[in-house]
Amino acid sequence: MKKKGILAVLSLLLLLTGCWDSRQIEKFSIAIGLGVDKGEGDKKVKLSYQILDPKKIGQNAGSEDPTKVVSTSGTTIHQTIRSTALKVFPVFSQHLQVIIFSEKLVSDIALDALINQFIRDNSLRRSSEVYITPGSPSKLLNIDDSGDPASEIIHNVSENRASTIKLLEPVTLGDISIRMQMGLSFIMPRVVEKGGQIQVDGGSVIKKNRYYADISSSDIEALNLLIGRVNGGVIDSRHKGHLFSYEIFSMNHRIHTTRKNGKYKFDIHSEIKGRLSEDWYRGEDSFNETYVNAIEQAVERDIHQRVTRVIHRMQNDLKTDVTKLAEYARINYPKEWQKDKYRWDEKFSEADINYHIDAIVQDFGTKGKTKKR
């Protein structure tokens, strides 16, 4: 939602003025972002709302961030929300796009406690996206990128999954509520500040409702390939020691799940189709089928190594399932799942996970014709 979108939201809200119990839009603080951090002094939590400022909208359009950030510390989430009314008009949260949690806070206080009020409050959308940061959420929300609000930047970046494999699917408030109710571990996208700009960079593992570990953007890429969550993107690899890029068009994915003697086995088969979009080898010959087959094998080998590496890390180093394979165990073995779910990370760590990948080069840009395969 750029500034035109913000104006549209305000226009729609103005239509509510005809209702008998309506309130003037100027009497609301319309929040589009929320940072949740450790409180100041003896307070438990600090809430930082990014609020639309009607006075700024339409003035110097394109150059000034039409929001302001208001921070309040308190003992509980609900009490802190109400205390914000000591500084601004009551917060209206139905247009809240992103919620950013502090890593330190989620290390000290269980996440299920921190989101308890949000889940109970039907005025806050369960579709709000959730992120975590190693720094200060309020500082992130105060970053102004040529007039675009920080919350809007984060939301927009999360939609770039057709361009890169290194982004997680957006994780919503509803998603993490379900995962926690099931007692399962999960990942939250990690947002950081680099060089004065906002960047979504890897993720953070939440285990037993607390911050547990970080995983890199390369790990996110491998996890997306493992579980088939790929909408597009580019794989860099090497052939004869020279770099090349393979652009993914599509991915077909299937998982066969078995359980024997209490142990799970997952056979994962993926097929990707794409383009040889860049090749640094001066002797390349895209019209030569043998050469194209060698490129396909290089892509397969590289992806298999990356995925195998991240499986090993999840099973042996972190001993935590963030792959969503639990869903396949639940669907295929619902009776056994009722017992296994209480120690699923342990079951996952013991499982056999076999990954198979087939890569197809469908075309190679203007250097050659499209191949039907």
Structure write-up:
This protein is of the alpha/beta class. It has two domains: 3-215, no CATH class; 228-363, Nutrient germinant receptor protein C, domain 3 (GMP Synthetase, Chain A, domain 3, 2-Layer Sandwich), CATH 3.30.300. Helix content is 32%, strand content 32%. Strands 1, 2, 3, 4, 5 and 6 form a six-stranded mixed beta sheet that branches. Strands 10-11-12-13 form a four-stranded mixed beta sheet, with helices on both faces. Strand 1 and strand 2 form a beta hairpin. It is globular and about 70 Å long. This is Ger(X)C family spore germination protein. Keywords: Germination, Lipoprotein, Membrane, Palmitate, Signal.
The run of helices and strands is HEEEHEEHHHEHHHEEEHEEEHHHHE
The tally of domains stands at 2
Mean pLDDT: 88
Globally, the shape reads: globular
- Helicity level: 25-40%
C-alpha-based Rg, rounded:
24 Å
- Give the terminus-to-terminus CA distance: 40 Å
Poorly predicted parts: 368-373
Beta-strand percent range? 25-35%
Briefly note the structural class of the backbone: alpha/beta
Question: What is the number of strand segments?
Answer: 13
Please describe the biggest sheet, giving its number of strands, its sense, and whether it closes into a barrel.
6 strands, mixed
Number of helices: 13
